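Help!! Second protein's tokens look totally different from the first
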Amino acid sequence: MIRKAIHAGAPVPLLAVLLCVCAHADDVVSATPPANAQFAADGSVGEVHDGQYLDLSMPQDRWTVQASTAAEQQLTWPVFIREVLAANLDYAAARYNVDMAAADAAAAKLLPNPTLSLSGDRDLSYHDKYATGTDGNPAPLRQVESRSIGVDQTIEWYGKRKWRIKAADQSLRAAAATLDDFLRNLKLDAAAAYADALAAQGIVDQLRAAAAFLDTLNQAQQTRYTAGDIGRPDLLQTQVERQEFLNDLARAEDDAEAARYALSTYLGRNRGQTGFIVSGDLKQQPRDYNLAGMIGESLKKRPDLVALRHGRDAAQSGVELAKASRIPDLDVGVNYGYNGGVALNHPVDPTPGFHQLTLNLSLPLPLFDHGQYSVRKALAADDQAQVQLAAAELHAEVDIRTAYFQYKSAQKRAASFETGILKDADDLLEARRYGYQRGANTLLDLIDAQRSDNQIRQDYGQAQAELAKTMIQLERVTGFEQGIRF
């Protein structure tokens, strides 16, 4: 009907409308939702699924998924790190990278497989036909039918196999160094998580002690209020402070529980619901370091830098392999064939049967692609590996210097608490408690002293955790074992 209207000389406006309708026909949304539409509570269409393809994304019935079981365990640092090394799933997955690299290194030593070829032909036109032969007798018209067997072997040009083996071996070494670096960082991440759990547990212990004191103080205040020794404002002040401490304690317990559950991610499959009770000491022994010597040894021995150097060597071997690959391989083949004879009285071509041995040599002619771009790509990969190594070494040196000064700063901060602040805060709290019992201090003086002591204790715990984590970071950036123990 559209064609008819156009040919009939449809007005221009009508023609424009028709063309617009045709151009936007695909944009028109059907008023009736498809059968696989999802409807919202208000009756609107929320989402339309294409069941033809989304069915492929459905979980398979043959898959087995196991949930972890709830448990509780006393956890010490030696037990924790030992299980991390033995059962961590990420480490177990990363080890397969070395297995695959080892398989590639073994495969690089193999020679190309020979090719076996079998062939035969049959005369379909004259196989069963006869004619009068040259001697006047009937003669089969079948032409020569042959059978053959052959073997072809690719002979690699000198140097290809050598550089392929060398590049694969260097890639294997790089994979092994990468795995070593993965394990090193895994242990350090686990140590940092354990330090966080210990610090969170320390805050809980401190707040529990403060809450216990305020419980005792609240009971004493109620007794004194009943006896008329204090007014209602002092009693309410005590109860408010006690409730605030209980709220702080609840938040601290939640944080500590989250920190403990975070430890499960470093352990085995059945640890998702294990409630750990962590134990240990955050305090670390101070150490002195020679910064210049530490930087030099770290740049030489850090596993990730070692992996990059092996990768650079593999890239250099790749350049030599690309150059060697510019010379094409030679294919050599030997073929044995038997050609069946035809009748001697064949009217056209009497041929006796005969055996045949064929030697084939084939060599690609590098007229257009003679490996020039493969060499260019290999050279670019080599340059890239060099630059990546230089960048990593620069970042490593900067990270070592930064981590070293952060460690010295954390060491000074932790030491400042141990030189008198903790003792002064404890002495002040005891003095305020004694003075309040004797009537020499007000309730506000006692509460302020309790708050100050709690804050100083928490700051000291955080300083110890910070010192431990700066040691962890220093070990991470240097690659040297720092002997971190909790």
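Here's the second one for comparison:
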Amino acid sequence: MSDRETIEAEIKAFIEAAQDVSVEQAAERMGARGGLRRAGGSELVGPCLFCGGEDAFSINTAKNAWNCRKVGYGGRDGISLAAHIEGLPQNLDRREDFLAACGAALGEAVPDGAEESEEDRAARQKKRAAAQQKAQRDAKKREADSNRYREASRNRARERLEARRKVFDGFGFLQYLALRLGCAPDDLIAMDVLPPFAGTIPDEPYFHTRKNRKVAEKLGAWAAMALPVIDAGGATIGAHITWMDETGQKGRPSIPNPDKPHETLPTKKMMGSHKGALIPLLGFVSGPDGTIAPRAGCDRLVTGEGIENTLALALAEAGTALFARTLYAAAATLGNLTGKADPKSGFSHPTLKTPKGRPQRIAGPVPHPDFLHEAMPLPAGVTDVVQAGDGDSEAAMTLSAMMRGETRWRLLGAQSACTLWPQMPDGQGGFPGCGFDWCDVIGGAVAPATEEKETV
């Protein structure tokens, strides 16, 4: 092998090693990782080592991606990140720039004798262009596959909703809601607090995928309450399923986790999509095109994370002037209710620690301006929003989330937004972390227990 062939072999190995460097590895080697903080899941945000700022730079370790909002672009490999931090051209057309980026990603010097002829440069640019085109094709395919999976999941949700029954001989959704709200089934009907789109699936199987297994295992079957999940346009894009058992705690079965026998599995699941959507409970009507829309004249929304907690407030307000002008809807998850937080507003929990002994980070009270519409939508015509606070969740996290939700509703166009925290008739509670929720309150006394106040 000639000297030139030896050099080219070294350079080839050098480039291949750089191509194996992940975004996170490159960030760590170049000192860009230390200033980032976790913004939820696999996303890290913070200042850009090249551009500065406070939170313009982010990396996603799961997607192996980085982005800098200061310059308006990002990438999906360690080489492109290294080039950005080094201030090299984005396209890396010059071999010298490309090798410099590879060296920065690896934390190594570029091999000697790496000069490039015009012929070699043209060949490399052609190869790079082909790789970029392949990456674009692969990205389109992943997006198409994701869209197909999402639509298939939504179709399965719609199929389960078709199995709903309004009348059920046994412990159905009417009996379950009456049990949770502490009243007789006939009272729910008489007070017009029975969700019109709810129904009972008689024998809904419960599937669970065990650790390190690809095929879901059927763990049993119970009657289940099913409600639609609708997007901002009223189209059904998912289903919320609650398995029921008259003999179980809170009217739901106890399903042991096969991987952790001392733990139980959740008895509520979502099918299809729920992000940026809502579960219509009361005040919604069916449209001629199969959509579900807010009833005309409703300018107030009462909403909460869960179905039962939201309906508890509806039961408290039944028969009042407020009830007649109110929509009642659930968000299914706290994140879908209050939205994504601006990372800059995050803070350390006053007492809770991570397994490593560090203060646990809490998502802050300020909504992220770029993700306002990726949570529960504000129904048309609504000017006033009331959030049903949950007093049996962790106090600091819940309070911060509810404050964020109030601000988000106002940014979406609501004139007022507040949170009602559960309070017993004797004055107990009325604050986050009080130890009970609205079902506990209403189950003891069907009457409004606190006035509407904005969280401060």
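Reply: Different proteins will give different token patterns, so don't panic. Residues 445-456 have pLDDT under 50 and may be disordered.
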